[in-house]
């Protein structure tokens, strides 16, 4: 009897682990965004706000799902992660000047492609955002895989 339920238990544990990884990633990304904006005093640009719109709810949604052990959350959280990743990808391409900044509407206070958009002088914030969204999306895809 334990040999039949053991693979199911292993799959459930794996799904829960991937869910926790997604939540921790969203939590770190959110706290980092708040720190950069409120403590370091860097004004977020329009594209940063769009990414925050999709990242901040993930902390609550994934946190509640972790607490309740709800691995079906991927159905609701995955679209938020994918849209956020699309904004972060666009922002990264803009930062690397693959897309011309002249065609992008940006706020007058903050630039999407300025030097202030890099941490430690060489790690662009849009790339960090894209990495966070990619980890969340991949983690949720693994949750989906282990719950089917």
From TrEMBL:
Top-level taxon: Bacteria
Lipid bilayer topology: Multi-pass membrane protein
Chief location category: membrane
Record keywords, A-Z: Chaperone, Disulfide bond, Electron transport, Membrane, Oxidoreductase, Redox-active center, Transmembrane, Transmembrane helix, Transport
UniProt keyword Transmembrane present: yes
Keyword set includes NADP: no
Places the protein is found: Membrane
InterPro entries xrefs: DiS_bond_form_DsbB/BdbC, Disulphide_bond_form_BdbC, DsbB-like_sf
TM spans (from-to): 15-37, 49-67, 76-99, 119-143
Recorded family membership: Belongs to the DsbB family. BdbC subfamily.
HAMAP family, sorted: BdbC (MF_00287)
Protein name as it appears in the record: Disulfide bond formation protein B
Organism for this UniProt entry: Achromobacter seleniivolatilans
Highest classification ranks of the organism: Bacteria, Pseudomonadati, Pseudomonadota, Betaproteobacteria, Burkholderiales
